[in-house]
Structure formats: structure tokens, C-alpha cells
Amino acid sequence: MEETAxxxxxxxxxxxxxxxxxSGTIIMAAGENRSLESLLNFxxxxxxxxxxxxxxxxxxxxxxxxxxxxxxxxxxxLLLHKHSLYSGLHIPINKFLVFMDKITSGYNRxxxxxxxxxxxxxxxxxxYYFIINGNWITLAKMDNIDICSMILAA
Length: 154
Description:
- Keywords: Hydrolase, Metal-binding.
- With 154 residues, the protein is mainly α.
- The chain has one domain: Catalytic domain of cyclic nucleotide phosphodiesterase 4b2b, CATH 1.10.1300.10.
- Helix content is 62%, strand content 0%.
- It is built from 10 helices and no strands.
- Helix 5 (71-82) packs antiparallel against helix 7 (93-105).
- Mean pLDDT is 79; it is low at 13-34.
């Protein structure tokens, strides 16, 4: 199964020793929005959305509507893309999208009134707000694996 192979690959990467000279910085992607935009079939202003990801003005319910109820997959994908984590961690984008859609499908909106995929995306974006605005990347010397782990754990 594709997801299993991706998880094995990610586990191998996580088990690699980190370079002792690693500065902990994450290089922001520039000009990469088009390819992910087409993969996720966005029909709204992606640049505006990317700029609002690290603000408290980000509205998860508007984002849910804009992404046609794919807010968790879309948000995590945008965050990984924004920090060049697909290339930095050798994550195949198409497999990641399938992986996140599988996670999303595990949420049962009928069983849980609040803890569902929209809540997960909201928690993820809020955590991202604090990572960026609290300067956690520099303070904690976060590297690509750290930030990817936090995004997925949220």
C-alpha cells in the first residue's frame, strides 16, 4: 500500500542522525505555489491564504468552504509546501495527499460533535501561528523534521 511505503520512508528519515552543524532554520519556499495549487484544485486566491496562515485572522470555516471540505489535507499540505518540506524531507506530494485524506476519512463527524477534521485543522493552524509568531523555530533550533512532526501531530 502506498501509505505504508511512505510511512516507512518517513520513519527511516526520522531515524537518521541530525547533522551537528544544522542551524535549525527552515528555508521558506518562494514561487512554488502553482504546482500545489493545481494538485489541490484550489479555486481561490492562494497567495492571500498563504499570507494569512500565520495570523489569528485565519478563518478555518472560510478555509473549509474554499477547500471544498478538504481543510485538513489542504492546510497541512500548504504548511509543508510553505517551508519546502516536501523536497527537504523527500516526501512525495501525491502520497502525502493520499495519506492526509486517509487520516481525514478516519474522523467521524456523527460520533464527535467537535473533535473532527475541522477542529484538527484549526488546532494545526493555531499551533503554526505560535511556532511562527513565538519565534519557536529559532528558540528551539527547530529543523525540518521538527516542524513537520509538529504540523502532523497537531
